[in-house]
Amino acid sequence: MNGFWDAMAALAPSVGVAILFVVAIRAMIHADRRERIARARAEAAEDARIVRESRDDTKREG
């Protein structure tokens, strides 16, 4: 049974680093996804503003 705990003690640092790596990569992927959604919303709002302004300019001319 002592050999089992020795093996666990040897594997613990690697498992800990692997868990930290997975958590960090997962956080980066989620942050990228949220940033892309926010950027798409901002671009859609900008496009809507441009369309709205072009309609206002057309009404003034006509």
Describe it for me?
With 62 residues, the protein is mostly helical. The protein has a domain at 20-62. The protein has 1 helix and no strands. The relative contact order is 0.06.
Write a brief structural summary.
This protein has 62 residues and is mainly α. Helix content is 97%, strand content 0%.
How can the largest sheet be summarized? none
Q: How many DSSP E strands?
A: 0
CA-CA gap between termini: 90 Å
Radius of gyration: 27 Å
Tell me the helix content. over 70%
Helix and strand string, N-terminal first? H
Q: Point out poorly predicted stretches.
A: none
User: What is the general shape?
Assistant: rod-shaped
Strand content: under 5%
**Structural class estimated from helices and strands:** mainly alpha
Mean pLDDT: 92
What's the total helix number? 1
Chart the SSEs and their pairings.
Blueprint: H1 2-61
Core attributes:
62 residues, rod-shaped
